[in-house]
Amino acid sequence: MAKPKTAERLQLALVGSDTLLGKELEEVLKSRTDAHISTFSASGEGNFGEEEGEAVYVEPLDAHSIARAQAVLVAGSAEGANKAYQLVNAAGGTPVLIDCTGHLENRPEARIVAPLVSSSDVPASWLLELAHPAASALTLVLRRLARYGELQQVIVHIFEPASEQGRRGVSELHQQTTSLLSFKPLDKQVFDAQLSFNLLSQYGEEGAAKLSSTEQRIERHMASLIASDSAGPRFPMPSLRVIGAPVFHGYSFSVWAGFGRDIQVQELGEALASAQIEIRGPNEEAPDGVSAAGQTGLIAGDIRIDRNNPRAAWFWIVGDNLRLTADTAADLIINLEKARP
In terms of C-beta density within 10 A (0-12 exposed, 13-18 middle, 19 or more buried), how is residue 263 classed? Predict the structure, then answer.
């Protein structure tokens, strides 16, 4: 994909470059843009980090460090997000602040954006909230299916990976797995439950994350995206449930969609196929999270007509959660760059 050309190199500030999401963002932004990226810790405070095996001091995020930036991207902790918000707010809403985490969703200036499914228009706000990757993915899928035929009901099971909780989530899943195999006590600080070799409808009461909160956030973002598309085909809000899965990376979606007429598997695949969605046919290997790791977009397959309803079908869809967010951020940066005078 061609990099945008400008007279002056785009300046970006990335808060949380030391996180899983931050590293993915930096990699994708470097590959898709010609921007200069200044990096900061997850908290926005100064501390020591590592670069190419050498200890380096990471400068703190302050007014001076964002003075020349056209955009600040937040991929770290709530502390770092709030610090970035206060600095940009004090500077009069310049530069644009892009929240990739959801920490700033409730700020009054926040506007939800999803370049994966919406036009290249950028909302007139200095605080842009990237839609949850599952919300963007499902909205894209349902929009394409609605063009094929009238959707009457949609039910979705969303299997959430441990990496949605950052390094701590991945580390805890790894520790639980090795401890179970060696009959040792389990670390439960993040999930407050056994996630390894298990599926969870909810995390423990003392867990750092709540699956119910994730469900509500996905629903809010989908409702916003559906409402903002006045020209596209209409489709109902899906009934969804988020399940904690013992995988490191990648969302998996089990989607049931009911139509107003009889349907065909081949036609459904053709309706979904696009630049953002790869289709695996019945004679190909079914999609899985491992094959989606590091890949742009979604992979859909194992499409089956419901044996008890000829007007409904099951879909299995996967996508790399970190790459979906990083690509969305890069799309937004490119759109902002095009809008520069």
Answer: buried
